[in-house]
Amino acid sequence: MLCLGIESSCDETGLALVDDGKVLDSVLSSQIDIHGLFGGVVPELASREHYRYIGRLFDELFARNSADIEDVDVIAATRGPGLLGSILVGIAFAKGLALSLGKKFLGIDHLHAHLLAVGLERAIVFPCLGLLISGGHTNLYRIESPCEFTCLGQTLDDAAGEIFDKVATALGFPYPGGKKIDDLAKNSKLDSSSLPRPYLKSGNLDFSFSGLKTAAINFIAKNGICQQDASCDCGNRLERFCADFNHAVADTLCAKVAEAFSKHPDLKCLVVAGGVAANDLIKAKMTELVHASGREILIPSKALCTDNALMIAHAAWLLAREGFFHHLDIEAIPRGRKIPDDLCHCQMEI
Ligand code: KG4
Ligand code: ZN
Asked: N or C: which end of the chain has fewer CB within 10 A?
């Protein structure tokens, strides 16, 4: 079954082909340089860029490999959560193709797709725990199957990637600065941190990162730490601070994962996804924790961690092979609104 996936929920426009769970091809265009000028994603600019690139990316994808659009069985696009104007560009493009070519259509939950993406590289054993850590979300899920997700906890304020980026901005680094903090932290031998690990005694699996963000930004201001420290001889203060902050975020995420496993001991493995899953310290600490509990940890390769269309095509294949599809009148869902449970079921003759 050949699935075309389209991603346009934030600042990456992507199209990809997945054939029976195997990667065929993908194209991706990033807007990071444009939004970097403004210190964050500008929604109106994002939708305009998706609109500018989606057609030419489609042509590029089908020009460079043997698949023809007529061979595609399912056409899928991210339906949310994300920036409404951006999602509308991808979903309208997908609906137009499906309608004109008489193909099956699916609107994909972007967050579920992130967590299922590692299935393109390794087999996921269900039921499993899913931790999604990105610029917009910090969510924990109980995942029964590719079609059955229960949200166990989420951030009440800032997302993990968001505090990396805000702290990086306070240090004077360009947006998004999460990777910069991770890279600088590697130069320090610091193995613990004096910053708070917030909201660990809440008794639930939600997160709250705003206290850590404020503590880190106050520390930067009080101690006059800035990116210039990297080029002068100030006793590695910048690297030390970055390591300190990295440890605080990693420990907070690990504590909630440990609590989730103790509340749900039947979960067989941990899947970590989203841009922050590329953080080396988080990966190392999470791997140690999960292995100590006798379980496996699955983290996709970097290209599958961040926004991409392969994960959309893959999630579409997992749903379509179970006979699920959507009618063409489904809505795009912006960030903050729950994605409705409106999948239809049929026996597909594919
Ligand atoms: O999933 P993603 O590509 O986009 C969405 O937010 O949907 O995640 C981007 C986020 C940004 O906040 C970025 O700073 C963060 O992931 N990030 C990192 C690292 N690489 C990317 N944060 C910490 N350490 C990293 N190595
Ligand atoms: Zn994403």
From this structure: C
- 0.90 surpassed by pTM: yes
Contact 350, 73 (CB under 8 A): yes
Distance 244 CA to ligand 2 centre (A): 26
Atom of ligand 1 nearest to the CA of 159: 12
Between CA 76 and CA 90 the distance in angstroms is 9
Beta strands 128-133 and 269-273: pairing type?
parallel
Residue 284 pLDDT: 97
Pocket probe for ligand 1: among 32, 111, 155, 164, the residue whose CB has the most ligand atoms within 8 Å is 164
The runs of H, that is alpha helices, within the chain are: 32-36, 43-63, 84-101, 110-116, 160-170, 178-185, 210-223, 237-263, 280-292, 302-305, 310-320
Residue-wise pLDDT tens digits, 202-241: 999 999 999 999 999 999 999 999 877 666 655 489 999 9
106 Cβ closer than 6 Å to some ligand 1 atom? no
Calculate how far, in angstroms, residue 71's C-alpha sits from the geometric centre of ligand 1: 35
Q: Is 25's C-beta closer than 6 angstroms to any atom of ligand 1? A: no
Q: How many CA atoms are closer than 13 Å to the CA of 40, on its beta-carbon side? A: 12
pLDDT digits (tens, 9 = 90+) for 75-107: 999 999 999 999 999 999 999 999 999 999 999
